[in-house]
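>> received
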Amino acid sequence: MPSSENTPPDAKALVKSMRAFGYDLQAAISDIIDNSIFASAKNISIKYSWNEGEPYIMICDDGIGMDESKLKKAMKPGSQSPDEEREEGDLGRFGLGLKTASWAMCKKMTVMSKKKSDKIRYRQWDLDVIVEENKWSLLTEIDIKTEELMKNVLNDYENGTIVLWENLDRILGKKINEDAKDLFFGKMNEIVLPHLSMIFHRFLEGKDKIKISVGAFECSAWDPFLSSNKATERRTTEPLDGGKISITPFILPHNSHLTEREREDAKGPKGWNGQQGFYIYRSKRMIISGGYLGLLDKEAKPFEPKDGFRLCRISVDLPNDLDEEWEIDVRKESATPPLRLQKEFIRIAESAMQKSSNVYRRRTKARDIISTRSTQILDIWNRKKIGGKFLYKVNRKSPAIEAMREKYNLGKNQLDALLHLVERNVPYRAITVDNNDITDSTVDLPDQYTTANKELLDIAGVFVKEELEKGKDLHRALDYITGVIMPLDNSGFRIELEKRFERGD
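>> returned
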């Protein structure tokens, strides 16, 4: 062995550096919950209190608990090497999460734990003590107030663990006032709660589900893929990397297929555009929630999520033994597919994005038509300004109107009289009043206006065949004619029309 000397890191300097790992509050709490889940907890409760200007956060669980040796090991920075083989359900990575997540939020972190039929044990890290003494002084005694606070909670469990954060300097700053109080409660209710509902949604649902609560509110699973919605298209699951990885694209329903509440819920914490893309799961735990992993950058310019792809969400499942290859970071908030898999990821993403674009475009075809002068003939309504006001006249040259006239053998005068009656009775004022507070231009039409009935399908089929004879491919012909026959809310109509041609009807 070559000669060497022991050079332990400076405790004061290192602990301050370890506070700068880039955690936000929701990521820090998620890291603690990882430990609770691995400890087989069924109930995890995040309790928080302003505590008369001395606020705290407690993450409590009813897991198996820790004895003296395991507690001491858990409190040690770098308690487990990332190279060590982990159990299948182990959500840890570097043996740092408990410490770095806690220190990123607070100066004082206490862990109290008990195993079944064992006594309560505790340890505490106080950063002020570490800085003052410049050594790793893990405290074995805590003040009576803190001890009683934690015991009162832990006594409700046969076994379990509590992580207590005090002196929340990184959450609240130095000013402890009413503004800080509002900020504190706002973060817990409006940011942490929905984040946990998303990150741990697979644990919050199913046969062996667990319960996670934040204050008085229980987390409900937020499924980014709307798996239970019949209009969601789940595409073929592809195994990659010898079956270690599975990837499944989902095409979400268009807004017009969702209720207002469903639309609001489905957009997620980041909004519709922000939530599109890849969702990376490591042992069921979500670590990436949307985005395209930097794989779709063009000419060194970051890819900007677009409306047309907003319905595209892709699930990726990987085990915990690929962490190094996937560059999973300490916070478990970033991952990069290995180079050998990136072409496959791009292929799958682009295919799903195209499908999303097709669905989205079909539903917004009417708006596209209205904005394009060259396709004005397709419009059912012509818009004309007279004396500072707008009038709307039915377009007699529309292929849809022509088709109806021929289908039902209507004379020109008969048809004009009918259309004139419709035009004279457009409820302008009612439309203005009814839609005054609506910001979304999408209109949910009654079933009778969206159902693909046989007569309309017959007419559309004739036009599609004509377009095919002109040299258009089937996809473009279907899009074009669907927009003509049923400009609004037409996805069901197009699907049924496409099925006809696939069957050869």
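>> The two ends are 82 Å apart (CA to CA).
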